Amino acid sequence: MQDIVKINHTDNVAVALRPLTKGEILDVDGEKVELKEDIPQGHKFALRDIASGEEIIKYGFRIGYAKEAIGKGQWIHVHNVKTALGDILDYTYEPAGQDVVPTEHVYFEGYRRSDGKAGIRNEIWIIPTVGCVNSIAKALETQAKSLIGGSVEDVIAFPHPYGCSQMGDDQENTRKVLADMIHHPNAGGVLVLGLGCENSNIPVLMDYIGEYDDRRVKFLQCQDVENEMEAAMKLLGELADYAGTFTREKIDASELVIGMKCGGSDGLSGITANPVVGAFSDLLVSKGGTTILTEVPEMFGAETILMNRCATPELFEKTVDLINNFKNYFTSHNQTIYENPSPGNKKGGISTLEDKSLGCTQKSGSALVRGVLEYGEPVKVKGLNLLSAPGNDLVAATALAVSGAHMVLFTTGRGTPFASPVPTVKISSNSRLAGYKDNWIDFNAGRMVEDKTKEELAGELLDYVLAVASGKKVKSEEAGFHDMAIFKQGVTL
User: Fold this and answer.
1) Residue where one domain finishes, among candidates 203, 218, 245
2) Distance, CA of 57 to chain centre
3) For the segment 141-200, what is each residue's pLDDT rounded down to a tens digit?
4) What range does the domain containing 37 cover?
């Protein structure tokens, strides 16, 4: 295993890949560096003397300014580095890079729906229109587990607190999210469970749902029937009969849509897990597939990299709006734009938002940006897409599913048990976490600093994704975890 890594030849810092001890002498590019203090794993140290106010360079980009003079071999972290970011910025389109070269086709075993879409799960979903019926939805989930069998893989309720007492765009977003969930191809059958008096009741939602297969989607307003459990179970039985007619078949991986998200990052996330996911993204795109990158606040500081990879000037302008609209969202709520990273990120070695963002955007690989999506907007264009959603793990992962992701790749340096409406693959940035939390972690990218190359791990990850798409359950599915969190943006009445 390597002791340290200097990510880019222009960097004036290196990152510890194991805990380093004061007094150790390290060879970095042929030059000796004696450590002046202990350096925790994932944290940075200076490769030369850095003056107060000088740029700190990591990934080949500025991640902040030195608050004070920093000596060669000293620890660099929040105590002596500060963000260099400002507020709303002007951007210039400077196209860079080229799209990935097509490679041979690969396949998975999935489900072909009547609307032509492909799914990777054949589940029955219970979707409440309003939080008032959440308890009924969960009770139905428990009772309807008896319907699992044959090709019907699970029955899942997705409770949420919204659907009423919302206004304007906030309410519109809830309605769009619910409609998108109803159309998601991972569900072989959907029961839409309403109350009857809510703002986003079933008749209102019909305008958002549009055309649907009435064998696949059933509706029930609880106020309209004497015994809602009995009525709902009858409908769920009909849905199970219909979903049971589907069987897995060979489908080209060009139809896969994979969401990409990170959380609980550490100093290795941008060195191992995120670059591996980025290489995977390029690999899937080369096979005609689609990936979606989100968590806009964690693009701040690295946004120009994504902007200049936009395939057209129009996409560049949409990406500028994506960034600045989110900054305006922060300031409209009197919040600091750059209030990030989190305590866990800092403990893991991330010092500034630029540090975090430059690591986060590694997940995008090198492909050109082909689509830019609003929150709740379904993906329409193959290739790499950017999606407007916050950094919150549950909200962002749900947003990926809502936009059409069949599964979410979630990189982490600290670990988390959460799930989303679709299979959520946990990818560790370090081997210690992979071993310690084996019940959470599905794939160990920490091997990149041990015995594997990025390309080897990207190939292994592609194989794993195809296996999951073909029915292999991830750890959170085995545990029975399924979460949904809608982005709350407005007032509550």
Assistant:
1) 245
2) 26
3) 999 999 999 999 999 999 999 999 999 999 999 999 999 999 999 999 999 999 999 999
4) 4-82
Please check whether residues 267 and 385 belong to one and the same domain: yes
Do residues 326 and 264 share a domain?
Answer: yes
Instruction: Kindly report the CATH number assigned to the domain that includes residue 160.
Output: 3.40.1400.10
Q: What is the Cα–Cα distance from 92 to 408, expressed in whole angstroms?
A: 32
Residue 92 lies in a domain: no
| Same domain (yes/no): 67, 132 | no
pLDDT tens for 301-327 read 899 999 999 999 999 999 999 999 998
Considering the domain architecture, whether residues 216 and 311 belong to the same structural domain is answered as no
> Within this chain, do residues 261 and 385 fall inside the same structural domain, yes or no?
yes
Tokens of 83: 């963000």
Tell whether 296 is covered by a domain: yes
Supply 389's token pair: 């959603």
| Paired strand residues for 409 | 260, 425
- Rounded-to-10 torsion of CA 464, 470, 472, 474: 70
Report the distance separating Cα 228 and Cα 405, nearest Å: 32
| Residues 281, 363 contacting (CB under 8 angstroms) | yes
CA angle (419 as vertex; 444, 233 as ends), nearest 5 = 140
Do both 459 and 368 map to the same domain? yes
Handedness of CA 275, 276, 281, 283 (dihedral sign): positive
Domain match, 219 and 281 both: no
178: amino acid identity, one letter: L
Q: How far apart are the C-alpha atoms of 145 and 160, rounded to whole Å?
A: 20
Beta carbons of 450 and 467 less than 8 angstroms apart: no
**Contact call for residues 242 and 420 (beta carbons, < 8 A):** no
How far is 39 from 35, CA to CA, in rounded Å? Answer: 8
Identity of the residue numbered 286 = S
Helix (H) or strand (E) holding 459: helix 454-469
Domain boundary among 53, 82, 111: 82
- What gap in Å lies between CA 109 and CA 107, rounded to an integer? 7
**Token digits for 317?**
């302008």
Confidence of residue 351 (pLDDT cuts 50, 70, 90): confident
